[in-house]
Automatic annotation (TrEMBL):
Protein name: MBL fold metallo-hydrolase
Key word rRNA-binding present: no
Keywords associated with the record: Hydrolase, Signal
Pfam families, alphabetized: Lactamase_B
Family annotation (CDD domains): ComA-like_MBL-fold (cd07731)
Keyword Nucleotide-binding assigned: no
Endpoints of the signal sequence: 1-25
Residue ranges of domain Metallo-beta-lactamase in the record: 51-245
Residue stretches spanning the membrane: none
PANTHER family hit by this protein: BETA-LACTAMASE DOMAIN PROTEIN, DNA INTERNALIZATION/COMPETENCE PROTEIN COMEC/REC2
InterPro entries for this protein: ComA-like_MBL, Competence_DNA_uptake, Metallo-B-lactamas, RibonucZ/Hydroxyglut_hydro
Molecular function per GO: hydrolase activity
Length: 288
């Protein structure tokens, strides 16, 4: 207990020093890096980081990283990013402060040139969170508060909007998850972090456009996410489940997989398929 009190005393001032709550709805200062991707294509990488989440979106010469997996998969994540010849991450989004989503953040922040960093307004009294905060402070990076209504600028023919969180306080950290919808031409991708039914219901009640061709299934396929109402509104053709092989949580849960199969959704899983890469020209989505 004494250890956690000391840790919390370190985290709080760090967090206050770097966290800037912004009401800005648009970010326009990302720098293009045209060497990264083929023109007129979006490439979405669902990176196999074991029992965790990490996605890399590459489009219009820009790079967006959503989450950075658990501590145990840092080398795996960094090797994957290195193979993509990434020079700059225009945006990083930490969907929420759980270790299996921010474990690799400090390493990523230290290595790469970062444009803007987003996270929900939620502290975590952990060494992993402290490491992330310290790395951000060392590079004079601020944390922009991620919430519904914020748009990221990923260039032409694309929208990238945060659909959640829609509240300021939740009992469960998972519901602080930043949910992102990316629309490239006619192709739509939804990234849900670990958002559970409370957050899903808030999005449904706001009558947000949740429709997506590809759904990154919430909370690693747990039964606490992916309600029937939510899946009906999203109506995905492809579902991606990010989880570790033989993980102790039993992810993905049978109920969730059954719901997807009953809807005839194509399911890909990182514990079965490894890293999954989808590309689209704005009309057709294909698996590499």
């Amino acid at each position: 207990m004494q250890h956690y009190k000391k840790l919390f005393k370190v985290i709080i001032p760090l967090f206050i020093a770097i966290f800037t709550f912004t009401a800005c709805n648009n970010s326009k200062n990302a720098v293009n890096n045209p060497t990264q991707n083929t023109q007129n294509i979006i490439k979405v990488n669902y990176i196999d980081v074991g029992q965790g989440d990490s996605e890399l979106i590459q489009v219009n010469g820009k790079n967006l990283l959503i989450d950075a997996g658990p501590n145990e998969s840092i080398d795996k994540l960094m090797n994957y990013l290195s193979k993509q010849n990434i020079k700059k991450l225009d945006y990083i989004v930490a969907t929420h402060p759980d270790e299996d989503h921010i474990g690799g953040m400090s390493s990523v922040i230290k290595k790469y040139d970062i444009g803007e960093f987003y996270a929900p307004k939620k502290l975590a009294n952990t060494r992993t969170f402290e490491n992330m905060a310290t790395a951000l402070k060392s590079k004079s990076l601020k944390i922009n508060a991620g919430k519904a209504g914020i748009n990221l600028d990923l260039g032409n023919n694309i929208t990238c909007e945060m659909l959640a969180p829609n509240s300021d306080k939740y009992k469960d950290t998972n519901n602080y998850s930043i949910v992102i919808k990316i629309t490239y031409g006619e192709s739509k991708f939804l990234f849900t972090g670990d958002a559970e039914r409370i957050s899903e219901t808030e999005m449904l009640n706001k009558n947000l456009d949740l429709s997506a061709d590809v759904l990154k299934v919430g909370h690693h396929g747990s039964s606490s996410s992916s309600s029937n109402e939510f899946l009906n509104k999203v109506n995905p053709k492809i579902a991606i489940i990010s989880c570790g092989k033989d993980n102790k949580y039993g992810h993905p849960h049978h109920e969730t997989v059954t719901k997807l199969k009953n809807r005839k959704v194509q399911i890909y899983r990182t514990d079965v398929d490894g890293s999954i890469v989808l590309i689209s020209d704005g009309k057709k989505i294909a698996k590499q």
